[in-house]
Write a structure and sequence with these properties.
Layout (H helix, E strand, L loop, with lengths): L1 H19 L8 H8 L3 H13 L3 E3 L6 E3 L2 H12 L2 H16 L2 E8 L2 E8 L14 E2 L5 H7 L4 H11 L12 H14 L2 E4 L6 E9 L5 E10 L5 H21 L4
Antiparallel strand pairs: 1-2, 3-4, 3-8, 4-5, 6-7, 7-8
Helix pairs in contact: 2-3, 5-9
Length: 254
C-alpha cells in the first residue's frame, strides 16, 4: 500500500508540473487541486514539496504557483548532453533504407561543412566525401541548406573569404544568382546540388535546427544523375523535410 501511495504521489506531482508548464501567470492551489482532482490540502502538500526542491516557486504577493528555475537548469544540462549524431542516426538509417542512396550528416564550421556521418546505401556510388572531411558550402546541397538560414552578414563574410570558385560547369559563381538560389532554398525548405560539386552526382539536403531555432547542421541524400532524376528529387523532398523536422525536434526545436 505504501508503494502504491508513493507512486500515486509522484504521478500527481508530475501532473502538477505539467499543468503549471502551460500557465504563464501561474495557478492558485485551489485551481491546481481542481484540475488534478484531489483535495486542496493534498495539493498544498505536493506544491510545498515541489517548492522546497526548486521545481515550483510561489509568488509572495499573489500566492500563485509556477514552474521554478530548476527546470531551466535541468533543460540546459539536457541540451548540453544531446549528441547530434546519436539523435540523427535512426533517421539517417530510415533515409538510407528508403532511398538506397548515400546519406550524409554535416555541421557548419568556419565557412565550410564537415561530414560527421555517412551511410553508404545499397547502391554503388563513388563519392569523395568521408567522415571528418571538409567541403565547400556554395556548391553542395548541405552547404546551401545551411547558408540559406544564416544571417546575411555571415553569408557575406563567408563569400568574401571563400568566394564562389567553380567546381564544375554547373557551379553557381555569380553572387547575385547565388543569393537568389538561397532565397529559393528558404522558400522550398530544401536545397539541391545539380552536379555543382561533382560531375554525375546530384544531391538534395534539408537544414537541421537546434533548441534556439538556429541552423546547426544539414542532412542530404546523394546519388548518380541517372537515379536522381527531377521526378525522384520532387518525390524525395517531402520525406527529406519530414526527417529534417524530426531531427530538429530531437534537438529541442519546437
Amino acid at each position: 500500500m505504501e508503494k502504491d501511495s508513493f507512486v500515486k504521489s509522484v504521478s500527481r506531482a508530475l501532473k502538477i508540473m505539467d499543468i503549471l508548464s502551460n500557465e504563464r501567470h501561474g495557478m492558485g492551489v485551489t485551481e491546481v487541486a481542481k484540475q488534478i482532482g484531489i483535495h486542496k490540502s493534498s495539493a498544498y502538500r505536493l506544491l510545498a514539496t515541489l517548492v522546497e526542491h526548486g521545481y515550483v516557486e510561489q509568488d509572495e504577493e499573489t500566492e500563485r504557483y509556477k514552474l521554478g528555475y530548476k527546470f531551466l537548469e535541468m533543460s540546459s544540462k539536457l541540451l548540453d548532453s544531446i549528441d547530434l549524431r546519436k539523435e540523427a542516426k535512426p533517421y539517417l538509417r530510415e533515409l538510407e533504407q528508403i532511398t538506397n542512396e548515400v546519406v550524409h550528416l554535416v555541421v557548419y564550421d568556419q565557412g565550410e561543412v564537415i561530414y560527421i556521418e555517412k551511410l553508404d546505401g545499397n547502391e554503388t556510388l563513388r563519392m569523395h566525401s568521408k567522415v571528418g572531411k571538409r567541403a565547400p558550402m556554395h556548391c553542395t546541397a548541405v552547404g546551401k541548406a545551411i547558408l540559406a538560414h544564416l544571417p546575411k552578414h555571415v553569408v557575406m563574410d563567408i563569400l568574401e573569404r571563400k568566394g564562389l570558385p567553380p567546381h564544375t560547369d554547373y557551379t553557381i559563381t555569380d553572387q547575385q544568382m547565388f543569393f537568389h538560389e538561397l532565397e529559393r532554398v528558404r522558400e522550398l525548405g530544401y536545397a539541391l546540388d545539380l552536379e555543382e560539386n561533382e560531375y554525375g552526382i546530384r544531391c538534395i539536403a534539408v537544414p537541421i535546427f537546434d533548441h534556439t531555432k538556429q541552423v546547426v547542421a544539414a542532412v542530404s541524400v546523394s546519388g548518380p544523375t541517372i537515379r536522381m532524376t527531377d521526378e525522384r528529387l520532387e518525390q524525395l523532398h517531402v520525406q527529406m523535410k519530414k526527417i529534417g523536422k524530426q531531427i530538429s525536434e530531437r534537438l529541442g526545436c519546437r
